[in-house]
Amino acid sequence: MENNSKIITKKASRVRFTVSNALGGIGWPELFIIFVAVVLITCSLTLLAKLSLLAGVITTVIVAIFTIFLISPNKNGEKLYYMIFIAFGFLFKRKKHNIENTSNIQIINNRVVFDNKQALIYKISAVDLTLSTQEERNTPIYDFSNYLRALNFDFEIIKIDSKLNFDKNKNYLTQTLKQDSLKNSQTQQLNNFLSMSKYLENQDLKLEQNYYLIVFKNNNDKKLELSLLSYNQHLSLTLPTSEEIKKIVDKKIIPTNTTKSSLATLIKETSTYLKMDNNKFVSYLTVNQFPLTVNDMWLSNFSEIENVNISIRVRHLDNITAFKLLDRAIRRAQDQETKKASEDIEYSLYLQNFNELLQLIQVGGETLKMVSIIFTCFADSKKELDQVVSNLKNEMIRNRFTINDLTFRQFEIYKCLLFNNNDKLKNIEQEMAAITLASAWPFPSKPLNDPQGLIMGENEQLQPVIFDIKTKSSTRASHNAFIVGQMGFGKTFNVKKQLNWLYCNNTKIYIIDPQREYGSFANYHGGEIIEFGNNPKAKINPLEIFTDNFPEHISLLEQWFKNLYSDLTNIDLAKLQEYIIQLYKNFKITAATNLSKLTPKDYPILNDLYNLVYQKEKNTLLEKMLWKLTKGADGVLFNGVSTLEIKSDLIVFDIYNMAKSKTISNAQMYLLLALLDRVMKKNKEDNLNLPPEQQSWICIAIDEAHLLINEDNLLALNYLFTLSKTCRKFNGILYILTQSIGDFTQHGENVKRQARGIIEQCTYQFIHHLNSIGLQNYTELLTDNNMINAYEKNIILTPRKGLCLFSINDKRYILQFIATSEEIKAIGTQEDINNLGKKI
Q1: Global confidence as pTM
Q2: Which structural domain, as residue segments, surrounds residue 241?
Q3: Model pLDDT, residue 520
């Protein structure tokens, strides 16, 4: 994937005049040490020279070497005299400390009050940029940069790991199991889902990373709070619950991943780590020097390391201070004299960046922040802690960061991180432009964890993906899913798994099945299989009205006849409309009629229409068309009272033997979709007086949707498009499946336009394996906002069973399906088991 490098300036305080550069800078402490050395040398030469000139020279050399040794920096850039000083301090200090007393910390709303100070805490929700292109990343990062520039106070961004929480999922399943109306098959599946949640809860799953913003303010500033909570589509802040804040405070005091652990009361301090008296081990590290350039999301790799919390402390610099800092750094960089070409180039780049940054700050286009990044490594044993620290150091080295392991300062750092916001971190701060800080974008991919969802499988980080298609939110408007993929790679398994879950959760299921793949699923749950298309017991009368809008029905009926018999002229259609309206009047059906009280027998049939037309249109095209529909070959399909009844809450419409003529099959499919649309609307009426948790849902699954396509007859496809737009209003769920995506792109612009419209109405898309031609056809149907990048295309092109790219609008997951043996019993066929991918 493309990346856009950002320059991190050399720490301004480390840009020094050439004279002091080799010694890492000379300040008052260094001058004092040099002064003492000069005094010692003078005394030694004065006293020892009388005894032995050689002794005086040797003493002078030793003092000089020792002085240079003391004021020279170590690998972390820290002076050795300073390290010796803190080492002596550590040697004689008390090594055991009491754990911070949480009773001194109050939690009020989202505020943590301590030592007459307060910190505001907000939970950060950010889009996942892991699979994004450079163009997709630019806008969120620049928006975040603008947000950071506006924060003219000190703040902290922290990452805290926690175990995935299955409580809401378990509670929902427990309540659902209490329903009296459940079938045995539903009870078995629900118990299986509950067992699966409990099983995963006890597994060593990858941890969930949560990010929080902590603002250090001493006053109750409502205006500030409103500005912080201002909505941004890429990154937003929400108020955590008091329970969440308590967990944050607890994990700052004792970093841990376990939800329950014995209470620690003491900390034993060593030079490189802390040991709690409940056998928890903690070690702090920081960044000593950043690389010259960093890529977008430069902190995200560190976010993925388990058992490592991250604290990004940010101190605001006013423009005057920033100007002074940069002016001094620019002057010193200009005066640098180096003996290496590489150093000349490096300082030239720093100088260029200092100048650009200074100009941006002057025109208000940038701000400078003082940033310190502290990594908190923790584990349940010293051996495990060493491994965590090693993982972090390896990642830092790989990304060209130099490490400071904060030797002898572990407890001081521990205290600094407890909301104290003191100045003890200044010596590890780094100047950083807001855009560079924003480009860190540490927010990793969060696992999808819908509280009332189905455990679909796992993402690339091996975290469970828990999905509820019924979820309603500002970013998840519809309940439609588009599923595409070649045969044999899990497309049907995917939808069966979801339908099995929905049927156990108060949802009526209606499946249009062209290949007889859903019969075993219906049989398992005691559903009904209806052969549709050439079955006199499953006939739909085209003159039966399925909509509440009488004029709309007349218009659609006219279009139905036109698509069935394209030779009809506009004059024929106008006459036909008159006859139809007259026929309805003869049966006392008008726009004012309460259609809900009519039964199928109350409607006229095509034979009644033929008799009316025959009286005035004998031997005309219109009369011959109606003769074919009533007494001819098509009469058995369309002429008669509707015999198809929707009684079961799980019906598979077997259309395997539907007419091979696309014109006839499209006419039949339109009638079936219209009937199901009426069932969906009737379901809404039944739900009106019920609380949301008791309302039932309707799910329509259309497999092999490409069979609806007829370039010369768009009636069924148009109706599917209308259904995709309106079903969300009626607690409706729509699944559209296809393996022949090319049929949507290679039958003219009208078909492609309608197909693109249908896909746009699908909040959820599951893209299983496609070949290069299929992938090209699929991308032709996507809008610019939903285009997939090179990495995602490679996933789709790689033939792996049970794997797909799962997208929720612009959020994407690599999803590997998993299932239990009990689920497979419901799903049924050997092909499904082969296409599963992973079984638990």
Answers
A1: 0.79
A2: 96-164+205-439
A3: 93
